[in-house]
Amino acid sequence: MRHDFETDRVFTIRGWHLSADLIAMVVSSDAAGRCWRLGLTWKDLVSGVTILVMILVYAWFEYGTTMLLLSSAWAASAVELVLGCICAVCAAGDLHTRPQPRPGRIVRRITTVLGTIALLAGLAGLIGNSGHAVEVVVVATTFLWLTGTLWHVLSIGSEP
Q: What is d(CA 131, CA 128) in angstroms, rounded to the nearest whole number?
């Protein structure tokens, strides 16, 4: 929200004042109903937040930080490996636990390969203290999250 102090007008984005209106919309039961109709689950929220944290942690590592958990490549690799496991389980767990049609099996194989690449890169970062391995973990996990989330979106309404 921008405020023009000379004319004392409030600028809005698509008619929403970014204040109490937005909070009221999010808290209202109508908004929650629309969210569930979209097919979003708590796992989608957790995986989305986790991938965002992974990207931020990588940025902090690359630009240098004094935080103990991000001060070296092996420590950052350990943090990214834990976050990557959380993200992978939430984003693609249902692909591996439910029967899938042929396109679902293809997506399952893609997420398996991406997860394996991320896991091996994370272990290489732990053992070899490699900053490049940390980057590979983040990129592979991001594509795993994207693949799993796209599958969720494409399969909305197909379950009985």
A: 9
pLDDT greater at residue 39 or residue 22: 39
Whole-angstrom distance, CA of residue 123 vs CA of residue 108: 22
Interval 124-139: pLDDT, tens: 999 998 889 999 999 9
Alpha helices by DSSP H, listed for 4-157, are 20-27, 29-37, 42-63, 73-97, 102-128, 131-154
- What residues does 4 pair with on adjacent strands? 9
Contacting residues for 160 by C-beta, under 8 A, at least 6 apart: none
Q: In Å, what is the CA distance from 29 to each residue of 11, 34, 61, 79, 137? A: 27, 9, 40, 36, 38
Q: What is the pTM of this model?
A: 0.72
CA distance 16 to 36: 22
Q: Produce one character per residue of 83-117: b if its CB has 16 or more CB atoms within 10 Å, e if not.
A: bbbbbbbbbbebbeeeebeeebeebbebbeebbeb
Structure confidence by residue, pLDDT tens digits, 59-76: 988 888 777 778 888 889
Take residue 62 and report the two structure tokens written for it. Answer: 């690359």
Could you tell me if 131 and 74 are in contact, meaning their C-beta atoms sit under 8 angstroms apart? no
